[in-house]
Design goal:
Number of domains: 1
Oligomer: single chain
Number of helices: 3
Helix content: 25-40%
Distance between the termini: 47 Å
Structural class: alpha+beta
Strand content: 15-25%
Radius of gyration: 16 Å
């Protein structure tokens, strides 16, 4: 059975597998647990969850002594 909903909670509670789509393209098809814990791209990561995952970019500068990236 295929059930279409925009309600994430409803999808997670009813589904063995769920599909996340954007612009008519399948972004990820997996178990709800894997979609939430291992999103395949930034769209899925920012779309699923309540609140959605926060994303930020990191700069390419590294502190050579500590080996840590520097955030801008």
């Amino acid at each position: 059975m295929i059930y279409v909903t925009h309600d994430q909670l409803e999808a997670v509670t009813m589904a063995d597998k769920m599909a996340v789509m954007s612009g008519g393209f399948l972004q990820q098809y997996d178990s709800p647990k894997n979609v939430f814990e291992h999103p395949v791209n930034m769209f899925v990561a920012s779309f699923v969850g309540s609140p959605a995952m926060s994303l930020d970019t990191a700069g390419g500068d590294h502190n050579r002594r500590r080996g840590c990236p520097r955030f801008h």
